[in-house]
Amino acid sequence: MKLTPLNITLACVLVWVISEMNLDTEMTFSWGWLIALCVILSLVDLGFRMIFKDLKKLWFAQIAFILVVGILMVVIKVV
Question: Which of 21, 22, 56, 67 is found 20 to 30 A from 28 (Cα to Cα)?
Fold first, then answer.
């Protein structure tokens, strides 16, 4: 399995959720949403791997995807 930006993002989200489990505060989102996020990120990663065979293009496309999604999340949150 090749290391890609979406795999790194998924790992960071999982580590963040696991680190927040021990706190007495309420979770940011439920287990169902966490599983849905993992499945969606895995499927998007698989789709990018099928579209881009070159590893360099794959990395650029996935980084661009993460940046666009992040910017859209900030814009939606502000509006």
Answer: 67
pLDDT tens-digit profile of 19-63?
A: 887 767 777 777 888 899 899 999 999 999 999 999 999 999 999
Angle, helices 31-51/55-78, rounded to nearest 10 degrees: 140
Residue 55, classed as helix, strand or coil, is helix
Mark residue 3 as left, alpha or beta (left: phi above 0; alpha: psi -120 to 50; beta: remaining): beta
30: how many CB neighbours lie within 10 A of its CB? Answer: 9
pTM of the model: 0.80
Closest by Cα among 36, 43, 49, 41 to 66 = 41
